[in-house]
């Protein structure tokens, strides 16, 4: 009897441990998309603090910043070659569940893949998904390949396709979506002459890009995570256009980046400011901070449809220093029209 009671007690204890672990994991996932505080209240605090007034004052840079290019990011990844600088972004699968529910053999383009922290969770969960990952830094691509090779994921290197590309200055490779296929996708309707078809304004269905043999025919998803903020603002429209051009009709772009009045922004000293909401770090890399209207105008301006767009406001606690940090990110989902 005592043994049975002890076994039952031990089983209940193990169940409680498992339940606590599951709750802890759920909380960790939720923290990146919670509302720990209201962004409007933060805005009021910042804009009434005279010591922070330089962040919102007008700014006219004399010259465009020369850094923030591939060389600066290559140096960055060289210094953080162990791959421990970034954590695997598993929370993205909760934020963007469309990646989990996607069809088999779907194609994802990860723009600015860094060391693979976004690529890893996608390939780990979706066994038949192919990820095409680009970065302007060859050093970053090497780190990504090393991290994926070390991961315990079946056939991972067969589904991971890295390539070097600065999407803010050059087009994506033609093998993603060739010019012919891009033009076909942009042309929604074909009106044949009534004399040929016997009817007026007959609509002809265009061939599917899945049947294309000259290129991949575009991708189903684009992930743009903490990448757009790293390029000069004057290049952002061209960069987003490139993402739009390689998406299949109905395809989705997932956006996550630094939001206005994020703790990181408020830490920059006045001499690090290179433009409006635009800063340069000591290592030459750039950081821009988005508001909702600016992000909305950027994506809708090139043809996307807005599905979701909001601030993620999270209180991050540094227990060692006993400090609470207010993090702000912009979360968005955009779709290419059918």
Salient structural properties:
single chain, 338 residues, 34% helix, 21% strand, SAM-dependent_MTases_sf, METTL2/6/8-like
Describe the structure.
The chain has 338 residues and is of the alpha/beta class. 34% of the residues lie in helices and 21% in strands. It contains 12 helices and 10 strands. The chain has helices at 2-30, 39-47, 70-79, 91-95, 119-125, 138-150, 156-159, 179-186, 194-197, 236-246, 263-267, 292-300; strands spanning 107-111, 130-135, 160-164, 219-225, 247-258, 273-275, 278-280, 286-288, 305-318, 323-335. The strands form 2 sheets. Strands 3-2-1-4-5-10-9 form a 7-stranded mixed sheet. Helix 3 runs parallel beside helix 6 (138-150). Residues 5-10, 12-31 and 188-211 have low confidence and may be disordered. Keywords: Methyltransferase, Transferase. GO terms for molecular function: RNA methyltransferase activity; S-adenosylmethionine-dependent methyltransferase activity. This is tRNA N(3)-methylcytidine methyltransferase. S-adenosyl-L-methionine-dependent methyltransferase. Its EC number is 2.1.1.-.
Arithmetic mean of pLDDT = 80
| Stretches with pLDDT under 50, minimum 5 residues | 5-10, 12-31, 188-211
What is the subunit arrangement here? single chain
Number of helices: 12
Query: Count of DSSP E strands?
Result: 10
Q: How do the strands of the widest beta sheet line up side by side?
A: 3-2-1-4-5-10-9
Kindly, what is the distance between the CA atoms of the first and last residues, rounded to a whole number of angstroms?
Answer: 68 Å
Helix content: 25-40%
Mind describing the biggest β-sheet?
A: 7 strands, mixed
**Cα-atom radius of gyration:** 23 Å
Query: Could you say which overall geometry the principal axes of the C-alpha atoms support?
Result: globular
Secondary-structure class: alpha/beta
Written as H for each helix and E for each strand, in order along the chain, the element string is HHHHEHEHHEHHEHEHEEEHEE
How much of the sequence lies in strands comes to 15-25%
Enzyme class: transferase
Pfam families: Methyltransf_23
Family: Belongs to the methyltransferase superfamily. METL family.
Organism: Spinacia oleracea
């Amino acid at each position: 009897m005592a043994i049975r009671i002890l076994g039952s007690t031990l089983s209940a204890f193990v169940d409680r441990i498992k339940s606590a672990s599951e709750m802890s994991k759920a909380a960790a996932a939720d923290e990146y998309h919670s509302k720990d505080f209201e962004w409007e209240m933060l805005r009021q605090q910042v804009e009434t603090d005279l010591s922070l007034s330089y962040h919102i004052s007008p700014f006219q840079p004399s010259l465009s910043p020369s850094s923030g290019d591939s060389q600066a990011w290559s140096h960055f990844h060289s210094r953080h070659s162990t791959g421990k600088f970034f954590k695997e972004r598993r929370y993205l699968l909760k934020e963007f569940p469309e990646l989990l529910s996607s069809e088999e053999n779907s194609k994802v383009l990860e723009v600015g893949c860094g060391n693979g922290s976004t690529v890893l969770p996608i390939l780990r969960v979706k066994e038949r998904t192919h990820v095409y990952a680009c970065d302007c830094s060859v050093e970053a691509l090497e780190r990504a390949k090393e991290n994926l090779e070390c991961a315990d994921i079946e056939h991972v290197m067969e589904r991971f396709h890295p390539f070097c590309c600065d999407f803010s200055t050059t087009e994506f490779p033609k093998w993603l979506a060739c010019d012919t296929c891009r033009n076909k996708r942009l042309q929604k309707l074909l009106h044949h002459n009534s004399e040929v078809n016997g009817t007026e304004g007959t609509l002809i269905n265009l061939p599917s890009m899945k049947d294309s043999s000259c290129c991949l025919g575009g991708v189903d998803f684009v992930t743009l995570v903490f990448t757009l903020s790293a390029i000069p603002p004057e290049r952002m429209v061209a960069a987003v256009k490139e993402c739009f051009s390689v998406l299949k009709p109905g395809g989705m772009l997932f956006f996550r980046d630094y939001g206005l009045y994020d703790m990181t922004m408020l830490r920059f000293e006045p001499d690090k400011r290179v433009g409006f909401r635009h800063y340069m770090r000591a290592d030459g890399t750039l950081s821009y901070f988005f508001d909702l209207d600016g992000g909305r105008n950027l994506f809708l301006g090139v043809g996307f449809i807005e599905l979701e767009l909001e601030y993620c406001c999270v209180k991050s606690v540094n227990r060692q220093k006993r400090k609470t940090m207010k993090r702000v990110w912009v979360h968005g989902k955009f779709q290419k029209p059918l």
